[in-house]
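The instructor's notes for this session suggest beginning with a concrete chain rather than abstract definitions. Hand out the sequence below and ask the class to guess, before any prediction is shown, which regions might be ordered.
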Amino acid sequence: MIRKLTEQDRQFVLPYLYKESSYNIFIIGDIETFGFDTDFQTIYGEFDQNNNYLSVLLFYRENSIYYSHLTKFNVDYLSVFKQHNFSYMSGKEELMTLVNPYLEKFSFAPMYFCKAVELEKNISKDEEVKQVKTDEDIKKLHKLLIQIDEFGIKKNTLEEFTKSTRSGLKMGMKLYIEKDNKIVSTVASTAETTVSAMVVGVATDPKYRQKGFASKLMVSLMEEYFQNRNKELCLFYDNPTAGKIYKRLGFKDIGKWVMMSNIE
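After discussion, reveal the predicted structure:
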């Protein structure tokens, strides 16, 4: 049986998701932050005859995430798909491989999924690193990110970017290094739960690369979460060079994550 979840399901769905908290960081974070009664988020659960969870499907704006502790996909979810206008679906590689045949117009992009619970080396925190807090910080961050194509924010106005950034700060933090009165490198966390957070938004101005700024930011972020918040960090990567940097700091591969995107 598949049904839409409500606030009454919170006490049961979260323990199910926390059994694999790293893989479910986005679903957990969205539930803990936004709950079940918003107009931009809908969560479904699949149950067996004893009312035990078999899978969970979340829609958040144009994004969706599918999770099951089993390697299975119930085709009854296809009728749920038709009720939502989504452009992205993501999840563990073994699950997305099962979903992929039913989403013919979606691309299939696997990434390495890793996590860290401590710094590999005892590297001191850098005083250059600052935290995004003000609208002026956000404005400078916008100027950096519009230079980098893979962030896809060129079409976003400063007002839109400021609004989304402010919203994002409720689920994590953004750090930066400033040189010549401009932000030249940044990293962020998001989807923060009671036990973990996701590292995102690692970027450096092309003119300031190869100076170790990204590593300094990662060290500061890791120290904040490991020492002050007692939480682990997760991240995705598909760039082998970036992967070597992350592993040198203490991240270890735990599996693969797939992002499927509507290519129409």
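Then share the key points. The mean pLDDT is 92. The longest strand covers residues 106-116.
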